[in-house]
Amino acid sequence: MKITGVNTYLMRIPLITPFKTALRTVDAIEDVVVELLTDEGAVGYGEAPPTAVITGDTLPSIAGAVTGFIVPKLLGRQVLDIEGNCQAVQASMVHNTSPKAAVEMALYDLYGKALGAPLYRLLGGAKQSLMTNLTISVDTPDKMAQDAAEAARRGFRVLKVKLGSDPSQDIARLKAVQAACPKDMVLRADANQGWTPREALRILGRIREEGIELELVEQPVKAWDVDGLRRVTAGASVPVLADESVFTEQDAARILSTGAADMVNIKLMKTGGLSGALRICAIAETHRASCMMGCMLEGNVAVTAAAHLAMAKDVIRKIDLDGPALCRENPVLGGAAFDGPNITLPEKPGLGIEGVEGLVPYRV
Ligand code: MG
After folding, report:
1. Which of 86, 220, 298, 335 gives the lowest tally of CB atoms within 10 Å of its CB?
2. What 3-state class would DSSP assign to 343?
3. Are 362 and 9 in contact (CB under 8 A)?
């Protein structure tokens, strides 16, 4: 089975509630969907969101990279040469991690289809299901409490609470969220780079004094401030998870080997796809650290790919794959199934995606 071409589309899905972090506000998922074509009629699916404030990728840059730079390097190549194909993707251009991730997903989807096996099994997977947290967008304490209560009603048992925009409100936000939740709700906090190192230590100390237990705190300081991240990790009583500071396996090695964070958040849009994510898993294993599997504002194509990886790797112990759970509808046929916080995967070849409804052709 050989790769013969690609189609790119736009997939737009309105969100249940606007997604707000210290970096941005978004009210709909609007992603590029990739269909990688073969000479035997099999189609591989991939998806990439335009997360300009984190990866630098935009809708036209994603579509342009896929059709103009990445896929031309794959034409005529054998689907079964998955390692060679991923190397060709990574060598096609620098940066552009989101379009590379979308194409690698489609390559792994085709690889699974060619071998007749679900991707998570081909990656060595043994888990049966995953349980994701739900993100609570940063807002007024009252609004965040309402959103948290609604999440609890929907069955979520772990919340990722966005903080860091106007840090003076962060304690009140967490107190309001905690008060709105059942006692056994697990709380994670994500400051999205919104604190200085000194501010982070002060706020985390106050959170502790208030009797609020956090399971972890994610990316407290600026992505580039690895020394500051290390000071927070050394001084805080809460485990620290590096997100925006870790794109590549080199970033993961530097952060974990110097104790700058306790864990890393793997997102396919940062790693440039599954091949880089697998290398970060191996690095985390060598440092006896664990990983979170995260996502950007992704629909159920990209989240399904991430779920396959998370299902396969024991080193991935925290799941933040709530993109589809934030959406009003799911146009993806097949793929990961969501029942409240529980995610299961179909026993179908590759990603197990059968199609996507309502796609609009999109080329630049
Ligand atoms: Mg984060």
Report:
1. 86
2. strand
3. yes
- Is 364 inside any structural domain? no
> Residue 281's domain spans which residues?
122-355
CA of 183 to the centre of ligand 1 (A): 24
Expressed in angstroms and rounded, the spacing between residue 70 Cα and the centre of ligand 1 is 27
Q: Which of the four pLDDT bands, split at 50, 70 and 90, describes residue 272?
A: very high
Specify the CATH number for the domain of residue 147.
Answer: 3.20.20.120
* C-beta separation of 268 from 293 below 8 A: no
CA distance 260 to 249: 15
Residues 225 and 265 in one domain: yes
The tally of domains found in the chain comes to 2
- Do 163 and 260 belong to one domain? yes
**Separation of CA 243 and ligand 1 centre (Å):** 5
Please check whether residue 363 lies inside any domain of the structure: no
> In angstroms, what CA-CA distances link 274 with 9, 106, 229?
21, 10, 26
Q: What are phi and psi of 91, to 5 degrees?
A: -85, -10
Q: Distance from the CA of 195 to the center of ligand 1, in angstroms?
A: 13
pLDDT per position as a tens digit, 307-355: 999 999 999 999 999 999 999 999 999 999 999 999 999 999 999 999 9
| Torsional sign, CA 120, 123, 313, 160 | negative
Q: Which of 48, 83, 115 is the last residue of a domain?
A: 115
| Residues labelled catalytic | 162, 267
- Alpha-helical runs (H) found in 4-138: 59-65, 82-91, 97-115, 119-122
The verdict on 173 and 275 lying in the same domain is: yes
In terms of domains, do 79 and 188 share one?
Answer: no
* Nearest CA among 97, 111, 122, 123 for reference residue 42: 111
**For 216-255, how does the pLDDT look when each residue is reduced to its tens digit (9 = 90+)?**
999 999 999 999 999 999 999 999 999 999 999 999 999 9
Q: Quote the ligand 1 centre to 244 CA distance (angstroms).
A: 7
Is residue 76 a part of any domain in this protein?
yes
